[in-house]
């Protein structure tokens, strides 16, 4: 169980940049109204190249950090709206635009909304939806590369259809609240 003031989420096979934890602590100290932070990230494929998503929703920049070169996408306004396939919806309805790693919470807020549910897939997306619906604190994107995610056979690329089913199941679980509080169109 978490005993510190900040809970940091990362996968066992990924990498935090050397300054990541200090940047997270400094951000929480500087912004007491924020209860959840996330950073820019790079995804690295098995062949060592950086993964990039479609340019319709993502803009990438080359970033030099820790003696290496990465392709890093923009942060999305997770508390705002996004236009996807010609329709405007809360950004958080589009899991691919949601905060990736690194993600960190104030411990008190993390437990106040129930922490992680025991789900085989999309447990992180479930937590972000609940945070957006129930937390009184703000989310904040740290505009800095703090995390490298390695994309391999143990990740969502192994079964993208299962990931989509998991996302839709989580959205269905919160459907009434998503429509009522965020104005989501559940079509």
SSE pattern, N- to C-terminal: EEHEEEEEEHHEHH
Give the termini separation. 38 Å
Q: Total domains, how many?
A: 1
Q: Provide the spatial order of strands within the biggest beta sheet.
A: 1-8-3-9-2
Give the overall form.
globular
Q: What structural category do the secondary elements indicate? A: alpha+beta
Tell me which CATH architecture applies here. Alpha-Beta Complex
Largest sheet: 5 strands, mixed
Poorly predicted ranges (pLDDT <50, ≥5 residues)? none
Mean pLDDT: 91
Structure, described:
It is built from five helices and nine strands, in the order ββαββββββααβαα. By secondary structure, the chain is α+β, with helices and mostly antiparallel strands. It has a single domain, classed as Alpha-Beta Complex (Spore Coat Polysaccharide Biosynthesis Protein SpsA, Chain A). The mean pLDDT is 91.
Topology:
Blueprint: E1 6-9, E2 15-16, H1 20-30, E3 34-45, E4 60-65, E5 68-73, E6 81-84, E7 87-90, E8 103-106, H2 107-112, H3 123-134, E9 138-151, H4 160-173, H5 175-182
Parallel strand pairs: 3-9
Antiparallel strand pairs: 1-8, 2-9, 3-8, 4-5, 6-7
